[in-house]
From TrEMBL:
Pfam families given in the database record: ETF, ETF_alpha
GN (gene name): acrA_2
Annotated source species: Neomoorella stamsii
UniProt keyword annotations, A-Z: FAD, Flavoprotein
Cofactor(s) essential for the protein: FAD
Cofactor binding remark: Binds 1 FAD per dimer.
Protein name: Acryloyl-CoA reductase electron transfer subunit beta
An example Gene Ontology biological process: fatty acid beta-oxidation using acyl-CoA dehydrogenase
Electron transfer flavoprotein alpha/beta-subunit N-terminal domain residues: 13-202
């Protein structure tokens, strides 16, 4: 059992700034927004941690999104993400500067890195949090996430070890506004890396062509569920999405029926989305679906059952048969938008 580190002077909130090829994953900015609130509640500094090669140009962006400080480690070995050197860099920074909270995006990279870092540090890690708050009395991080198949929300505390580590999926937290002229402190840390310790060699990077869907970045999503009834009926949703410049989405039932591929699934075991407008069409509103879309700005539900739970989270509800409602909406939007 690792030694108790809760009362040994760990202070400050850190966000790991995930970048690939110099492009920052938007979830890192979202986490800076959440981290700012936590740091203010604790009365401590918010810092971003930037690892890579040739990434110093991103430092001003990290300040602009709310960090007071940036820890920057640059090295050719960090040029491509590989677990061992990234974990070593982050672990060393944590041991040296001792933050009380460390947040990472629940992307594939963040999930890989957070597990390794938490293990090396012997601390706890709460994955896929949907809310992060501070208990003003104990100063502990309250890490809330769905548990037991999404049927309860559990709040998890890491009382005895530091840092308190959590991951959050893209789009769960709102995007903070960017403050152009905001400046902070830069702490450049030199570490000696050698290529052999990376253990993995990057031979070639192949850009993914025809990248399926960026549901988590879509501004308008037209999602269908079991109520759509068939693959052919999804044409109706496709037409609506086409008129609005939106993206299709699906409930798990629609994916399991084979009407859309799995990358379109919204929800607990799919993607978390936060569009400006989310159409839930023939979707009942199971909790596992709701956790993936209920923070959308506007939710339009179309369902022939007026008691469907989706109406509880809907901004606008239309009770009716989707086969009549959806074409009527498409025609009306087409008329308005042309
Ligand atoms: P149903 O619940 O069958 O709802 C269909 C709706 O369509 C009904 O409300 C019905 O009134 C309406 N309808 C029918 N005909 C029409 C019509 N002609 N016009 C208008 N409305 C009509 N689900 C997800 O979506 N995403 C997840 O990530 C996810 N993860 C899960 C993880 C776990 C561990 C578990 C246990 C479940 C998960 N599920 C997930 C499944 C979830 O519990 C529900 O089973 C699923 O969301 C139901 O999909 P649905 O709303 O499309 O279907």
């Amino acid at each position: 059992m690792p030694a108790d580190t809760a009362n040994t002077g760990y202070r400050g909130v850190w966000v790991f700034i995930e970048q690939v090829g110099g492009e920052v994953a938007p979830v890192s900015w979202e986490l800076l927004g959440a981290g700012r609130q936590l740091a203010d509640a604790l009365g401590v500094e918010l810092a971003g941690v930037l690892l890579g090669q040739g990434v110093a140009g991103l430092v001003t962006e990290v300040w602009a999104y709310g960090a007071d400080k940036v820890y920057l480690v640059e090295d050719p070995v960090l040029g491509f993400y590989r677990t061992a050197p990234y974990a070593r860099a982050l672990v060393r920074l944590v041991k040296q500067y001792q933050p009380e909270i460390l947040l990472l995006g629940a992307t594939s990279l963040g999930r890989d890195l957070s597990g390794a870092v938490a293990t090396f540090l012997g601390t706890g890690l709460t994955a896929d949090c949907t809310s992060l708050t501070i208990d003003p009395e104990t100063r502990l991080l309250e890490q809330t996430r769905p548990a037991f198949g999404g049927n309860v929300m559990a709040t998890i505390l890491c009382r005895r070890h530091r840092p308190q580590m959590a991951t959050v999926r893209p789009r769960v937290m709102p995007m903070p506004s960017r403050q152009e002229d905001r400046r902070g402190e830069l702490v450049r840390v030199d570490m000696a890396f050698n290529e052999a310790e990376a253990r993995v060699e990057v031979i070639e990077v192949i850009e993914e062509k025809n990248k399926a869907v960026y549901l988590d970045r879509a501004e308008i999503i037209v999602a269908g569920g079991r109520g759509v009834g068939s693959k052919e009926n999804f044409r109706l949703l496709e037409e609506l999405a086409g008129v609005l410049g939106g993206t299709l989405g699906a409930s798990r039932a629609a994916v399991e029926a084979g009407w859309l591929p799995p990358e379109y699934q919204v929800g607990q075991t799919g993607t978390t989305v936060r569009p400006k407008v989310y159409f839930a069409i023939g979707i009942s509103g199971a909790v596992q679906h709701l956790v993936g879309m209920q923070t959308s700005d506007v939710i339009v539900a179309i369902n022939n059952d007026s008691q469907a739970p989706i109406f509880k989270v809907a901004t606008y509800g239309i009770v009716g048969d989707l086969r009549q409602v959806v074409p009527a909406l498409t025609a009306e939007f087409r008329r308005q938008l042309v």
